Amino acid sequence: MEALKQELKGKIIEVLNLEDIAVEEINDNDALFGDGLGLDSIDALELIVLLDKDYGIKLTDPKAGKTIFQSVETMATYITDNRTK
């Protein structure tokens, strides 16, 4: 799980072009949206594409994203439970 969290942090930085943030600066339980990393709805779409492309997870319920994308921790747990790749 730790390796997956580190991998996710790197992918989030890469996919969302967060050049000013290092992997070490993202805590597992930091909020991804709002006061945390400050991501927006466009970033959420990018994360949905990331889940599909890299882990074979298709999100069909947009409301589920709100729960899944709370933090790196919640994303890693969801991926572990649902990945097909």
UniProtKB/TrEMBL annotation:
Keyword terms, alphabetized: Phosphopantetheine, Phosphoprotein
InterPro entries per UniProt: ACP-like_sf (IPR036736), PP-bd_ACP (IPR009081), Ppantetheine_attach_site (IPR006162)
Superkingdom: Bacteria
Chain ranges of the Carrier domain: 1-83
Listed name of the protein: Acyl carrier protein
Organism for this UniProt entry: Flavobacterium enshiense DK69
